[in-house]
Amino acid sequence: MEEQKKRTRRANGESAIYFGKDERWHARVPMGYKDDGTPYRRHLTRPTRKELVDEVRRLEKQRDEGSARQPGKPWTVEKWLLHWIENIAKPVVSENTYDGYEVAVRVHLVPGVGKHRIDRLEPEHLESLYRRMQTAGSKAGTAHQAHRTARTALGEAVRRGHTSKNAAALAKPPRMEEDEKEVEPYSVEEVQRLLLEVNKRRNSARWMLALALGLRQGETLGLRWEDVDLDNEYLKLRRNRLRPKYAHGCSASAPCGRKPGYCPDRVQTRRETKNTKSRAGRRAVPLPGPLVTMLRSHQDEQERERKIAGDLWSKSDYVFTKPLGGPLSPNTDYHDWKRLLEDAAVRDGRLHDARHTAGTVLMLLGVPDRVIDQIMGWEPGGAARMRARYLHVPDHLLKEVARKIGAAIWGAPETTAVDKNQDNGS
Predict the structure, then answer these.
(1) What average pLDDT values come out for the chain (426 residues) when binned by 10 residues?
(2) Alpha-carbon distance 421 to 426, whole Å?
(3) I need a surface site. Which of 170, 349, 365, 402 has the fewest CB within 10 A?
(4) Between the CA of residue 311 and those of 266, 305, 328, what are the distances in Å?
C-alpha cells in the first residue's frame, strides 16, 4: 500500500493520479487557465484505479476537443440565453433577426427550460416544451422559431466549452405540415381587378411593384428616387425599410401611461433602413413600360403634394411616402393592402402572396430561371429551393400537359371529358 501512495514527477500538463488517505484513487487533471490566468485543474476521485484512469482519459479528450466545461459556477439555460442574446447575438445580427430571437427567449425558452443547468439540458426537455407550446395554442412555426433560437444559442455555448452537447441539435421539432397553408397565387384576372382599384389610390405604383416584380415589402418601402432610373427603365434594390421601434420620450415623473409607440413624445430607437447584405439582394430589376409610366405619374403627384404641404412636408428621398412626406410605416402599408383587396373584391391574402404571384407569372412567361432568380433576389445556392416554394403551376397548365401526353402516347385528341361535356351542352 505504501507504493500505491507514492507520487511520481510528471511532465507539464500531465494529469496526476495518486492513492489518497481516504483509501480512494484521486486525479488532478490540468484543464487550462482561469480568467485571472491561474492554472485550472479538475479533481476526480474513484474507488479503483481503472475507473479513475478511464474517467481521466474521457476528461482529457473533452479538454483537447474543447468541449469540456469551463471553471466557475455552471450556467443555467436562462442565464446563458440572456447573456447570449444581448452580448453575442445582438451586435452581429440584423434588427429583425434579433427581434425573433428576443421573443423566443423571453416568451418561450426562459419560462419553459430556463431553470435547467445548461450542461444538464436534455433534448427531451425541449421536446416537452414544444408540445406544451402547441397545447397552449402556439403554431408549429412558433415552436420552430424557439427551436432554431435554442439551437443557435446552445451551439455557441458548446463552442465556448460551457456544455459538451447541443441539446437542441438533438431534439426533434414538431412537424410543420399541419401549419403550412398552400399558397395560391393571384390569377391574371385578379391582378387586373387589383390594377383597376390601384389606379384610384395614392402610391398606386407601390402595389404594382409587388404584383408585377415581386418586390418584398421592405425593399419597396426602402426605395429612394436615386435608386430609380426611369430613362433606362430599371431600378436598383440595395436597402430595406425596417419596422419602426419606439421608446418613451415622456418623463418618468409624468408618464403618459401608453405603450411606447403611442407616447406623444415617443423616440424612435431603430434606424429607418438597413443596407441589403446579400449579393443577390442587391440587384437591378427591369421596369415594364406601363410601370415606368405609373412611376413618372407618381413622381409628378408627389411633387404636387410637396408644394401643397409647404413647410409641413417631411423632407426625404423615399419613392413612397406619407401624405406629408416621410417614409411609409410597414404596419400602415399592410393595412392598406388589406383594404385594397376588399375594395377590389379579391380574396384575402398575405401581402407576401403578391411575391408568389409575380414569380409564377415570370415562370408562365417562359423567363429563364437565372433571370427569375435575379429579379426575385434569390441566392444561387438556394435558388432551386426558392423556385420550388414560390413558383406555382396552375391547374390549366397541368391539364394542357395531360392533353399533350394523351396525344403523344395514345394518339388521343387533345380534348378532355370536361371539354366534350361542355361541347354537348352548348
Answers:
(1) 46 80 91 75 91 90 71 82 94 86 96 93 96 92 94 93 90 71 79 88 90 89 93 89 81 84 81 71 86 93 93 91 90 92 92 86 81 82 74 67 67 52 47
(2) 9
(3) 365
(4) 22, 12, 19
Nine cell digits for residue 304: 404636387
What does DSSP say about strands 228-229 and 25-33: parallel, antiparallel, or unpaired?
unpaired
Give the three cell numbers for residue 368.
429563364
**Given phi > 0 = left and psi -120 to 50 = alpha, else beta, which region is 31?**
alpha
Residues whose CB falls within 8 Å of the CB of residue 232, separated by 6 or more in sequence, listed in order: none
| Secondary element (H or E) of residue 131 | helix 123-135
Contact between 25 and 45 (Cβ < 8 Å): yes
Distances (CA, A) of 206 to 48, 190, 202, 332: 76, 17, 9, 13
What span, in angstroms and rounded, lies between the C-alpha atoms of 359 and 355? 6
Question: How many Cα atoms within 13 Å fall on the side-chain side of residue 407?
Answer: 10
Helix (H) or strand (E) holding 32: strand 25-33
Locate 320 and state its grid cell. Answer: 413612397
The answer to whether the beta carbons of residues 176 and 140 sit under 8 Å apart is yes
For residue 279, the 8-state DSSP code is T
Q: What is the pLDDT of residue 103?
A: 94
Cβ burial of 374 (10 Å; 0-12, 13-18, 19+) is middle
CA torsion sign, 76 to 81 to 82 to 88? positive
Q: Given the C-alpha cell 407576401, which residue does it identify?
A: 352
The type of residue at 331 is: N
Reduced to 3 states, what is the DSSP secondary structure of residue 366? coil
The values of phi and psi at residue 395, to 5°, are -60, -40
Q: Of all helices (H) and strands (E), which one includes residue 21?
A: none
Rg (CA), the chain: 31
C-alpha cell of residue 47? 474507488
Residues counted in the chain: 426
Q: What pTM was computed for the model?
A: 0.64
